[in-house]
Amino acid sequence: MKGISLLSLLGISILMNLISPMASASSRGDLVTVSYVDVGRYLGSWYQVARNPLIFEGNCVCARQVLRPGKPGQIDVYNSCNEGSPAGELREIRGYAVSNDPISNSKLTVDFNLPHKGQYWIIALDHDYRYAVVSDPSRLSLYILSKTPTLPEDLYRAALNDAALQMDISKLIKPTQVGCTYPN
């Protein structure tokens, strides 16, 4: 291996570090989404009960997502939260989602007019649409969402169990939904 330079070894090391997270995620198999989502029932307000901490979320509390019918084939998406406390600065973003799988409607691409589009995969859904568990193919994000600002403990445990079938739930945090006023 005389021909391998220090720069080549560095390049290989960097490449291995990039591939390792992908290998560990793929060793769990592909993320499986629910077999069918009735979009009409899924529309409306969803409140963030728990999530994996992600840098772009900051210290969001009172997080809510509103999904409404959009242009044909699209769902309008409005996400809002308050920074740090229910009285904190309002953070909001608007965009739209399209289904990547019109048979199941469980794999969506969300476009907030940013350089990268997001993946929104519904991996668990209560039969009465009281909670949803959402992630992305890389398993970086994990959200437990509820149709109400708080989720009864039995339903929260059911959502956690559903999430744990495919995801590491050890990093979940529970941002507050107490004392919140939600924008229209």
Provide the fold topology.
Blueprint lengths: L5 H22 L11 H4 L1 E8 L8 E10 L5 E9 L6 E10 L7 E5 L6 E8 L5 E5 L6 E5 L6 H12 L20
Antiparallel strand pairs: 1-2, 1-8, 2-3, 3-4, 4-5, 5-6, 6-7, 7-8
Distance separating the two termini = 65 Å
CATH class of one domain equals Mainly Beta
* Helical percentage: 10-25%
Helix and strand string, N-terminal first? HHEEEEEEEEH
Low-confidence stretches: 1-27
Q: Which second-level CATH architecture of one domain applies?
A: Beta Barrel
Name of the CATH superfamily of one domain: Calycin beta-barrel core domain
Strand line-up in the sheet with most strands: 1-2-3-4-5-6-7-8
CATH fold description of one domain: Lipocalin
Q: Tell me the fraction of residues in β-strands, as a range.
A: 25-35%
Task: Specify the structural class.
Answer: alpha+beta
- Mean of residue pLDDT values: 87
Biggest sheet statistics: 8 strands, antiparallel, barrel
How many strand elements?
8
- Cα shape: globular
